[in-house]
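=== Structure Prediction Worksheet ===
Name of assembly: unnamed complex
Input type: mixed (protein and possibly other molecules)
Chain count: two
Listed entries:
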Amino acid sequence: MSIVFRARADLLARVRSDLHRPHSFAAERVGFIVCRAGRLVQGGLVITAADYDPVADEDYLDNPKVGATMGPAAIRKALQRAYNGGVADLGMFHVHMHGHRGMPGFSPVDHRESRRFVPDFFNIAPHVPHGAIVLSRDQAFGLCWTTQDAEPVEIDRFARVGAPLRLWWWKR
Amino acid sequence: MVVETVTGRFASQSFLGSDSDATFDGTTVGVVGLSGGGSHVVQQLAHLGVGHFAVVDHDRIEAKNLNRLVGATAEDVAVNRLKTEIAERVIRGVNPQAHVVARATRWQAAMQDLRECDVLFGCVDSYKERAQLERFARRFLIPYIDLGMDIHPAGAGFSMSGQVVLSSPGGPCLWCLGILTEARLAEEAKNYDGAGSRPQVVWPNGVLASLGIGLFVQLVCPWHEASQLTACCEFDGNRHRVETSRMEYADELCCRHFAADEVGDQFFTRPE
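=== Predicted Assembly ===
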């Protein structure tokens, strides 16, 4: 099963620009890439980024133990965004950024936290994939949930659609 | 990987980047239409080292195709071979390890294969199909390279012209550039039954395919700093010239035909 994630370069630039901004107390910023999907052969998926929703300044919780903690308002807004009447619901991919170059990875906290809240999106938008992504300065890594109960799977290939076109492969 | 088994094969194109071999090898390219234009495209992609293909054409070769379908043989005509089989043979002849998905069907029946492509070439005859292919590519955020050629009577002779367009999500589209117009689609629809066989020859297809390959390479492995999101190369086959006049105002165009959030499958549902 192949999972491909594509985003326009201008959207990714908007994401990076927002995540790069300092916050008054959180050590890092987070947001949600709003996505739609298409089916590939053999159960694969192509995830296409449609928009970006930053987490508002006031929706962070002050938690010095981790880089950023979303408050209930941030989660509620993201859940509301996912719901589109059940007809064309939106996939929500949580995103944060590491400051280095090369292939990024999830920390144990990232793994734990994403497993805690990403499956909740299936309560609202059960028919579309959701996930979590970490960006580095030039690459990306991500996990995709295809159902609420399934184990997340790595996104195989990222495409930054612009000039130039950039492709990043996981496990290559 | 291919790079390891054919050491030195790509030495002459190392200026495309130290990792260009791996990039081409990992890139998936779709080619819809495998006759005059598409046959040149797959051949050049294979020579570049592209490692993954989705080639689509429902048709079989006929004698009338042999004047322009590169890689085809008289024997192919004799056995009425599928154009996808010829394309796959050409690709594997250059790159035996290439992963080729060949679909002898209308492209609309191969969408799940084409969605996986990183770049899509459209080498189809009709404006209607080009409009549909571009819309498909935009929805799945796939840069689309469109090849079109036309030879028609003009005065005492013929006019030969064509164009290659790189249409990328976020940039001007075939509609913005005036390649697609309602009038052209209407004219095409009106003449649908009486179109007959249109003149086609090998060399303009080769020119247009080569221009398209150049646009593909500058997008994936740019060898200069002016990598382009959008391009429109117009070929005047009578004067043997390539112009880019439609691009004069393209940078100022904000595409009104495809919204940024109109992506993905509108009817996506999880299988039961």
